[in-house]
Fold:
Amino acid sequence: MPFTRATKLTAKLRLALAAPSGAGKTYTALQLATHLGGPIAVIDTERGSASKYADLFAFDVIELDSFHPQRYIDAIHEAEAGGYGVLIIDSLSHAWAGKDGALELVDAAAKRLATRYRSGREDAFAAWQEVTPLHNALVDAMVQSRVHLIATLRTKTEYVVETKDGRTKPRKIGLAPIQREGLEYEYDVAADLDHEHTLIIHKSRCPALAGKVFPHPGKEVAELLLAWLQGPSTPPAPTMTALPSSSPAAPTASVPPLSTLSAPASPSSPTVFLTTTQLQSLVIRQKECGVSDEVFREYLTTTYQIQSRKLIPAAQYQTVLTWLTHQRDRRARGDHTERSGPSPAATASPSAT
Structure:
């Protein structure tokens, strides 16, 4: 089978959208799908929540009551056969932690296999050998699908206490997505939504989106994705015509020396934000060091001109950890005068610069 010229003209989008409950995953997915174009199909695992937006968006829906991976696979193939342009899986987390999802299948397999051992010991490793191929088949169905695919993911939720204008109130934050670790690598774009409906891109094969933040994402994001998926038009390959041997040698075109050719400008590197694991470690370290959300936000605003952990540049991760430790040590010494801490240049370790 011969190699062919690579082109993005027929590429289909793979987008993962992670957020805690109430952040607007379903609405944002429908908004992006509408601007991507084509009929929209929705796999709804949220007990009809997608249909609550039927007055705002036009789409067809199938509601699952069992979240076995094969049910998802069958629904994906149904969307392809139905000629839909965009498929939304809302949500993919149920295939992992829902009824008949991967975790339940592993538990059932472990109990069944335990009867084969005289000791009655459950063998989780052997159980995963049965369930992993099902999970992988679902991943393959998504990656190889012939339609644009948007998958929403629930995130593990934690509450942090914030003080604003002298009033204390809890705020819900999302941490790791509820799915198998590493699943985000299967997608073109992996992004988080916060409760202010801000889209934060954490991983992107689309250069125009890498490291970006989009409040209330919609048409702008969809257009950037479509432009990237289509790519530039491919020029026809040049044809080579051999000269007759009796003909005089064709004049060669003058080629300017390399020193006169300007090097292409290197694109600026996009900002890379903290990973989910780093965000979790940061929350834990902040609690261990006894730093309040008000003080931490003041530090982020003063030092980086940001107000959210999710917008901390990955290059400054060690610097922020060092600052938190510095606050704990100062408090242990009874020194409460400094709040913002030293500058990044003063505390950054070699790996953070």
